[in-house]
Design a protein that fits this description.
By secondary structure, the chain is of the alpha/beta class. It has six helices and five strands; from the N terminus they run H-E-E-E-H-E-H-H-E-H-H. A five-stranded mixed beta sheet has the order 3-2-1-4-5, sandwiched between helices.
Amino acid sequence: MTPEYEAGFDEKVADINEVYQQALERAKQGQRTESLDEMTGVQALERKHPGLPMRPGKVERREFEYIRHGTLSFICNFDVASGELVACTASKTRNEKDFVEHIQHRVASDPLATQWHFVSDNLNIHLSESLVRYVAKESDLDIDLGVKGKSGILKSKASRAAFLSDPTHRIVFHYTPKHASWMNQIEIWFSVLVRKVLKRGNFTSVDDLKRKVLAFIEYYNRTMAKPFKWTYQGRALSA
């Protein structure tokens, strides 16, 4: 059995597909549907010497020596209904605190939103105790959450995931199946960022890297943004 066909795969695929299909209608009702993930260890590399320009029959050639100026991690949100990159946090770390603060800032940016749907993978910081406590507070739930690793909702990753996926909450997380983070639409956008900015970019500092990524996001939203056409519905047909 291949990893993507683990127990619960079909149910999670159906949930993600439904989230994408309903995104536009939910937007009309004041709900937000966003795909989010991190891109970690993005290097600010500066080429030591200018590249050689293109010539007839010759591609642009790049100097192989470079200077390392450090790395950044980006947490980004892609709006499934509009096709815009609606949030991007850049920091030197990617941990539980960074992720929760990112979600808090995003939710605070639109206090009129009636419900938030976040598509995410199963990384441990996406299933954290602090995230559970924040979602409970935002959903006006005055309940005993238990003790992490011992009891109640906080006991395990599975129990925390079940709570965070509850459709009655104001903030709902929809988790992709294990080994299937490709179902997360932000991964498509990250590939655009790599091709357009990072792959052949020249960055003099981490601040320069951040500035150029944010400038590209502004340009992308203004000139290129549109919803991705999602056609995947389940397992591939077998012979």
